[in-house]
Amino acid sequence: MFYLFDTCALNHIRELQEHMIIDLRDIILQFRIGITNAIVEECENFDLVHFFSPTNCYLIPIQNHDIIKMITRFPFFSDFDEADQNLLWVSMQESSVIISDDGGLNAAALSIDKKAIFLPDFLIYLVKENFLKKNEVRKALKFWKEVHRYNISSHKRWLKSLNLIT
C-alpha cells in the first residue's frame, strides 16, 4: 500500500517540526510513500525538498493521457491542480491512502470510494500502531487548535478518537 501525502500535509508536518512539537520524518519513512513528478515540483515550489526528500519515495510515473482519461470519466477532477489530480489518479491505480489537509481533495477521493484522511487522522493511526505516543499527538492537536489549523468540531472528534485508544 502506498501512502500519498499532498504538499499541504507535508507543510503541516514541517510546521510541527519547526515548532519542535514532533518530527515525523523518520516515522513516515517506515511506510511506502508514493510520489509523482507533479508532487515533486510542488515540493520544490514550497521548499519542501530539503525537509522531506523525494528520493526517499517511490516515484510513480503518470502519462498526460492517463490524466485526460481520468478527467473525462470524472470531469469535476479538472478543478484540482496537477499534483492533486496525480494523487487521485494514483489512488485509482494502486492500493493507497491519500493523506491531505485539503478537504476538497479528500472529498473527491472518497466520492470514488478511495481512501483519504486528514493528517491528524494519520497521527491517530500512528498511535494505534505504536509509532507515536498519545501525548505527542495531543501536543500536535493543541498546537493546531492554537493556530486555528482545523475547525473546532474536527479537533473535538480527533481528541475523542485519541482518548479512546488504550
Properties at a glance:
166 residues; mainly alpha; Rossmann fold; three-stranded parallel β-sheet; two-stranded parallel sheet; 9 helices; 5 strands; 55% helix
Q: What count of helical segments does DSSP give?
A: 9
Spatially, the strands of the biggest sheet line up as 1-4-5
- Please give the radius of gyration in angstroms: 16 Å
* Category by helix and strand content: mainly alpha
The parts where pLDDT drops under 50 for at least 5 residues are none
Number of domains: 2
Q: Tell how many strands the DSSP assignment holds.
A: 5
| Terminal-residue CA separation | 26 Å
Please state the overall shape, judged from the principal axes of the Cα atoms.
globular
Report mean pLDDT, rounded to a whole number: 95
Percent in strands: 5-15%
Order of helices and strands: EHHEHEHHEHEHHH
In the CATH scheme, the class of the largest domain would be: Alpha Beta
Please identify, by name, the CATH architecture of the largest domain. Answer: 3-Layer(aba) Sandwich
**CATH-defined topology of the largest domain:** Rossmann fold
